[in-house]
Amino acid sequence: MNIQNSIIEEMFKAGAQYGYQKSRRHPSTSPYIFGTKNGIDIINIEKSYDLLSKALDEVTALGASGKTILFVGTKPEAKQGITEVALLLGMPYVSERWVGGALTNFPEIKKRIFKLLDLREQKEKGELEKYTKKERLLISKEMEDMTKNFQGLTSITKTPDVMIVIDPKKELIAVTEATKMNIPVIALMNTDCDLKKVKYPIVSNDASVSSISLFLKYIKEAYTKGSTGEAK
After folding, report:
1. Closest C-alpha among 88, 31, 74 to residue 172
2. Contacts of 232 (CB under 8 A, 6+ apart)
3. What b/e sequence results for 166-189 when a residue is b if at least 16 CB atoms lie within 10 Å of its CB, and e otherwise?
4. How far is Cα 186 from Cα 55, in angstroms, rounded to an integer?
5. In Å, what is the CA distance from 79 to each residue of 114, 153, 167, 199, 212?
6. Is 182 helix (H, G, I), strand (E, B) or coil?
7. How far apart are CA 91 and CA 109, in angstroms?
8. Phi-psi region of 39 (alpha: psi -120 to 50; beta: other; left: phi over 0)
9. Which of 71, 102, 160, 213 yields a CA-CA distance of 20 to 30 A from 223?
């Protein structure tokens, strides 16, 4: 079995072919629909593979150049996978809530991240003990909120080179900011999404943990292949 057939088989096993109800279909995804069963669109996995292959070639090139990828996926099915793959690759990520301006107002966001890191350092050194109990509670709450918003961004020093998104319809604000900043977007997107909003769309099931996990596995392997020189 060649690589293409092997990947297509894995995609089928992961349920990547399942779209949403036909009534939710975005017209741009129509060329990638195989048919409809019981009102549910069935995605043409062979065509999805072509989109995936193109995206993975780009990710491999990113790995070879040591580029930074920002992973974004805040829906329950995507959070864990996004976090794990980003950490394995040493990349920034957003798995809780996209903070408006994270890209378009990056300098200000970076200040807030620095504040979080500074407060953490002060806490470790016991320097927060100089405050009253009430003040410490307020600082603790502030740190908790900032950690939730910026935990995956604490290592970022500049705007990313590429954004990888699970469900660009849900992450519309993030995708819109990336577009404004001329940051290419690679996205796993279901049949309700507009393909024209991202540079590298992959039409596939974006509502299944198994499908999302498989996609992220391919991304991790492609980036690692590029970064280790295996692609040469």
Report:
1. 74
2. none
3. bbbbbbebbbbbbbeeebbbbbbb
4. 7
5. 24, 15, 12, 23, 10
6. coil
7. 17
8. left
9. 102
Place of tokens 């920002």: 70
Q: Please write the tens of the pLDDT for every residue from 69-78.
A: 999 999 999 9
Q: Which residues make beta-bridge pairs with 42?
A: 18, 35
Model confidence pLDDT, tens digit, residues 128-147: 889 989 999 999 999 999 89
pLDDT at 1 over 80: no
| Cα 138 from Cα 200, distance rounded (Å) | 43
Q: What's the CATH superfamily of 3-103+159-227?
A: Glucose-6-phosphate isomerase like protein; domain 1 (3.40.50.10490)
